[in-house]
């Protein structure tokens, strides 16, 4: 019992973060060492000697270590290797997700991601940029960076059904010109529900599907809402027609994805931005999401929010090659006699 408890503790501690097959075999190696050492210690505590002690007359006084038991421990180690194929089954049964599965899902050759890159290449590029922003921010605050990276890769898969209705996939023709503002908003909003359907069809884990359903929260499709309001100032507006169904993000990773998605998309509207332009853009997005209650269901702290904001500003400045802004030197007021 003591040997199995010790080996089990080593198994749990060495399996906290396993992303690759080599990590799994290293874990099995540690388990093997734990088996051998704990067996040696318990045997010494029980017997007191390593080798058999034989009296002068040939009688066996102490048996020493029972080396034959090492074979059974070796069999235990081999059986541990069989646990790897059971990981997907246990994940399905208990609604869990391992880092090994997340690594597999992040492969750009997975069917859904490959289809997205063919049908909506602009959306695919957007998703890659969002995943970079989100992963960096998650790492900085100690959130699950791999999970939010994978969630970002899949969050817009619903756009592949009607890619031409999203600006990142448009060339010259804009199909929204032929629709009413309500119809356009409905088309934009539908990419969330359609994405959830696609994710379930392809068997994505529920935790990844949550990123798809929450990445817009319960915000409005602001552009079409404001256009409709400006053209119909005296008519009542049914805001539900312009509002995403939600739910709002419920954990740090989902909040990071929402903010990264909005920041990356909004930054595309900037023409030759300065560092100050990017800083103002990020600040406005964070203020907007906070004031509209999109973060209230999560456990994100204000300190973490400030850290995420700083990461976004730094990376967006790098993406747009913003140079260092030097302060303007003031000329002397005496006409320059002292120069």
Query: What spatial form do the alpha-carbon principal axes imply?
Result: elongated
Radius of gyration, Cα only, in angstroms?
Answer: 29 Å
Question: Strand order across the biggest sheet?
Answer: 1-2
Low-confidence stretches: 335-339
- Tell me roughly what share of residues is in helical segments: 55-70%
Which architecture of the largest domain would the CATH scheme give at its second level?
Orthogonal Bundle
Mean pLDDT: 87
What is the straight-line distance between the termini? 86 Å
Helix-strand category: mainly alpha
Treating each run of at least 4 consecutive H or I residues as one helix, how many helices? 14
Q: How many domains make up the coordinates?
A: 2
Element order, helices and strands?
HHEEHHHHHHHHHHHH
Number of strands: 2
Q: What is the percentage of strand-forming residues?
A: under 5%
What is the fold-level CATH name, i.e. the topology of the largest domain? Hypothetical protein af1432
According to CATH, what is the class of the largest domain? Mainly Alpha
Major sheet details: 2 strands, antiparallel
